[in-house]
Amino acid sequence: xxxxxxTDVLVVGSGIAGLASALAAAREGADxxxxxxxxxxxxxxxxWAQGGIAIARDDPEQFKADIxxxxxxxxxxxxxxxxxxxxxxxxxxxxxxxxxxxxxxxGQSGFDFGREAAHSxxxxxxxxxxxxxxxxxxxxxxxxxxxxxxxxxxxxALELIRHxxxxxxxxxxxxxxxxxxxxxxxxxxxxxxGDLYPRTTNPAGSTGDGIAMAALAGADVTDMEYVQFxxxxxxxxxxxxxxxxxxxxxxxxxxxGDGERFMPDYHEDAELAPRDVVxxxxxxxxxxxGEVTLDVSPLDFAGEFPDLVEKCEDHGVDYEDxxxxxxxxxxxxxxxxxxxxxxxxxxxxxxxxxxARTGVHGANxxxxxxxxxxxxxxxxxxxxxxxxxxxxxxxPELLERxxxxxxxxxxxxxxxxxxxxxxxxxxxxxxxxxxxxxxxLRRLKGxxxxxxxxxxxxxxxxxxxxxxxxxxxxxxxxENEESVGCHHLVEEASADGGQAPEPRADD
Length: 507
Fold this sequence. Notes:
- By secondary structure, the protein is an alpha/beta fold.
- Helices cover 36% and strands 17% of the residues.
- A hairpin with a 2-residue loop joins strand 6 (156-163) and strand 7 (166-174).
- Helix 1 runs parallel beside helix 5 (131-144), helix 1 packs parallel to helix 11 (370-385) and helix 12 runs parallel beside helix 14.
- The radius of gyration is 22 Å and the shape is globular.
- The two termini are 38 Å apart.
């Protein structure tokens, strides 16, 4: 382990939430270090966001009502107030005035506001179907030129430095070298958990690092059972890609293997029903008829979504025949429990973005609110995190006294973890299966813990983070007996209450 470094604010993660935190802290005069596993720019989840960013426009009360309804009235109304009351100002300040993001316009009355599932009006700013990268790239470039911000990419946070309920920094890894970085405050913005499932819209490396580090340090973690699956992910080949909800917002319809449109049978809002409803319907119809396709013939798909047309062509998909789709893990609605300023239960620790549980989403997230939540809470957390003293204490010792792990060790363990999460902790959950999942995940975590006591590597710590996060999801799912939103319990439990055989690593 090398000598330590110091910074006023350490931000871990480089999506919109982390970058907003860095911007706000730097505006307060803080020296900011952004440490991110991502290699720019595609490694951060925000880069992959398609649909857009919702704002309140001139009707914050209706925006709030839509968020609460999509969550099955489980979202925290006070947190939703923070989001909708700050939405317009945050977007105007950062995305329009500071970054000059060129959102699509309609050529007549200004912005071309889109509409997605469970929204009652058109309120979504977008750039074609690639909004994320059109925000993320200029944001990175802007902070790159800021005198008070240092961005360290391909750099992972392995463990928080904490003492007596306070966080003092984190141990960072870059190119095999480990370095304690001390900070007046740490902002976790590490994104999602896609690597815990075999099919996901997240970029590689989404292993729940921030959640696991916070939980292991003693921070409160809440609502982990609410894992949202996106209903329309193209599955024509081994490289699935997201088909934005905006496509359904413009009129595309879902058809089963028999060619029948089925969503009106599941919900009065049909294709624009809440995501959890549509995702389960797609799974049901795929199971019953073998296939579900997204029929884009009712709209000018090529004219309105040229980026998605290009994706289809790159993946050999003839969109005129319908895009084959299936649900995939998309977003974690829970995470590190934080307040209206992103403050976690440990002193000087903040969490923003997907790794945080602000209360905005409750049991189910409304489309196109993730970028907005990351922006609003990132600004608030960064401002609050600035101005705190840096104290250097003893960092945790990370040992490297044993030989390196076998080449396929992490790959095989991840395969087992994903198989368990997919079978037992997916779109639908059986209480008995959740118990089985916890038994397997406890054994897996025990195996990984045994290795982390004597070995240190990024891949091993990512595996530890994934096993901790997966166990938290399964445990909180088992504790929640109410079927609501993303947490959907099947009516019948399995007949035998015994232990199911553990999925093999080579299954």
